[in-house]
UniProtKB/TrEMBL annotation:
Keyword terms: Amino-acid transport, ATP-binding, Nucleotide-binding, Transport
Gene3D superfamilies, alphabetized: P-loop containing nucleotide triphosphate hydrolases
Pfam families noted in UniProt: ABC_tran
Lineage: Bacteria, Pseudomonadati, Pseudomonadota, Alphaproteobacteria, Rhodobacterales
The keyword Membrane is assigned to this record: no
Protein name: ABC transporter ATP-binding protein
Organism, as annotated: Pararhodobacter marinus
Domain ABC transporter: 5-238
Family: Belongs to the ABC transporter superfamily.
């Protein structure tokens, strides 16, 4: 079976600085794949290159077998690749409901959009309670939920999540990851998740990659990575 998303020998620069140094990885349909790495490893740059916000200098990004590298972000979104950005960039002055409606901007099927909004509310009941509230007045965790919900409104074939645990308490992180797990299992949403929080990410993921200084240095099943000594000492904080 060919991969839903395949990245081959990708290189991305900021001017003279090479941030992605020959990265290759695969995501199969239905999987959760996580990319772990410390601050500055290149995780955000990798997602930005896949979603078309940055152009790679070299390499290929294949989606459903078609090369998409160098396409504009709106073209990438229309293929079904949806990025949920780091820092929960919701529209602060719009209500929860308006944010979700904007999420569906590529679609015109009103009845289906309403159904998807109800699906988002069923996964995130707090958003239903606060549907009339301005997004800027939500807590950090609720804004993260809204950012994920807005991504879901595009019916993504793959959702790219940039550090959903950032700035959240362990309890809220667990709550959000439990919901991501249900979205994967029950709705079949394929996910690529970049995280510094290796413990929660490996617990959710099927496959994992570890990035250091722009390169992939380890690749394995999430279970094997979680059991590896290097991961335990560097990323899981075990002695
Ligand atoms: P973080 O967790 O902080 O988001 P990251 O793993 O996502 O880290 P990137 O943000 O992708 O890492 O950064 C990768 C490398 O590219 C780092 O060395 C960083 O300093 C550099 N970099 C990132 N953004 C820029 C920029 N706008 N201009 C120049 N260099 C940048």
């Amino acid at each position: 079976m060919s991969a839903l998303l395949e990245v081959k020998n990708l290189e991305t620069f900021y001017g003279p600085i090479m941030a992605i140094r020959g990265v290759s990885l695969e995501v199969q349909k239905g999987q959760v794949v996580t990319v772990l790495g410390a601050n500055g490893a290149g995780k955000t740059t990798l997602l930005k290159t896949i979603s078309g916000i940055m152009d790679p200098e070299k390499g290929q990004i294949l989606f459903e077998g078609d090369p998409i590298q160098g396409r504009e972000p709106h073209q990438v979104v229309r293929r079904g690749i949806v990025q949920v950005p780091e820092g929960r960039e919701v529209f602060p002055l719009l209500t929860v409901e308006e944010n979700l409606s904007l999420g569906a901007y590529t679609r015109s099927d009103r009845a289906e959009i309403a159904r998807d909004r109800d699906m988002v509310f069923s996964y995130f009941p707090i958003l239903a309670e606060r549907r009339e509230q301005e997004a800027g007045t939500l807590s950090g965790g609720q804004q993260q939920m809204l950012a994920i919900g807005r991504g879901l409104m595009l019916r993504p074939k793959i959702m790219l999540l940039d550090e959903p645990s950032l700035g959240l308490s362990p309890l809220l992180t667990q709550e959000i990851f439990d919901i991501l797990r249900r979205l994967n299992k029950d709705e079949g949403v394929t996910m690529m998740l970049v995280e510094q929080n290796a413990a929660v990410a490996l617990d959710l993921a099927d496959q994992g990659y570890v990035m250091e200084l722009g390169r992939i240095v380890m690749a394995d099943s999430a279970a094997k990575l979680a059991a590896s000594e290097d991961i335990q000492s560097f990323y899981l904080g075990h002695a």
